[in-house]
Amino acid sequence: MMDQGVALAVLLGVAGLYAWHHAKRLRGPRREESAPRNKASGGRGEVTYLRDRGGSARERARQEAIARVMERVGRMSLEEARCAAEPLLREPRVWRPSGGPPSGAELARLAPGLRALVAQAAAVDVLGGALRIDGARAAEWRMPHADVLSFGAGTREAEAFVRIGTDDAGSPMVARPGEEDVFVVRGSDSGRAAWTVRYASLYHWLLVHHGLEEETRRVSGR
């Protein structure tokens, strides 16, 4: 288990990548905006992302908003995150299930809280396609190679996970059997070094990404 400080550092690293991604979805590409760059240091995940040249006031405000979201969600326990996320699960714009409840051996291996979400429907579109949960297609999944940088938890090439969905970048979301944590695996199909981002639960993922979208809209005036 990570202590709270490391967990928060991991989530702050996630912010640099996902806030950039969601900002592009909401406002379109900007001429002087560059993709995030990732680096590892001392065994802890750090993310360096490029700012607009000159550091506009809007960009500074956006980064401050990101920090607020990450700090708020990063401090939540599983139960706190579940309670905070429940209203979002009733919003069709945020949580859109389709098809009947799935069944299968892989679903039975999931932790109770995660299984309750994944097994709601055959598929769920989350946040307008930012994530697609495919409960009907849940399957065993392994790291494709040993060259994987993990943020917050160790992974082993031979370790079996359960794949529960895919985000809008085509990256799989996986979970260890019996654990609530979920991982988004970046670069797993590139043949080069991959890396993982850990969320304490699927509820935490939802709160992070919904919060980032809301803050990005607020800061950008949309």
Keywords:
222 residues; alpha+beta; nine-stranded mixed β-sheet; 6 helices; globular; disordered N terminus
- Average pLDDT, all residues: 75
Outline the biggest β-sheet.
9 strands, mixed
Rg: 17 Å
Uncertain segments? 1-54
> Which bin fits the share of residues in helices?
25-40%
Alpha carbon gap, first and last residue: 39 Å
Count up the helices.
Answer: 6
How many E strands?
11
Task: Output the helix-strand order.
Answer: HEEHHEHHEEEEEEEEH
Residue fraction in strands = 15-25%
- Rough outline: globular
| Helix/strand structural class | alpha+beta
The oligomeric status of these chains comes to single chain
Structure report:
The chain has 222 residues and is α+β, with helices and mostly antiparallel strands. Helix content is 36%, strand content 23%. The chain has helices at residues 4-27, 57-74, 78-85, 105-108, 112-118, 202-220; strands at residues 37-41, 44-48, 95-98, 123-126, 131-133, 139-142, 148-150, 160-167, 172-175, 182-186, 194-199. Strands 3, 4, 5, 6, 7, 8, 9, 10 and 11 form a 9-stranded mixed beta sheet that branches. A two-stranded antiparallel ribbon has the order 1-2. Helix 3 packs across helix 6 (202-220). It is globular and about 50 Å long.
Q: Summed up, what is this model?
A:
With 222 residues, the chain is α+β, with helices and mostly antiparallel strands. It has 6 helices and 11 strands. Strand 9 (172-175) and strand 10 form a beta hairpin.
How would you summarize the topology of this molecule?
Elements: H1 4-27, E1 37-41, E2 44-48, H2 57-74, H3 78-85, E3 95-98, H4 105-108, H5 112-118, E4 123-126, E5 131-133, E6 139-142, E7 148-150, E8 160-167, E9 172-175, E10 182-186, E11 194-199, H6 202-220
Helix pairs in contact: 1-2, 1-6, 2-6, 3-6
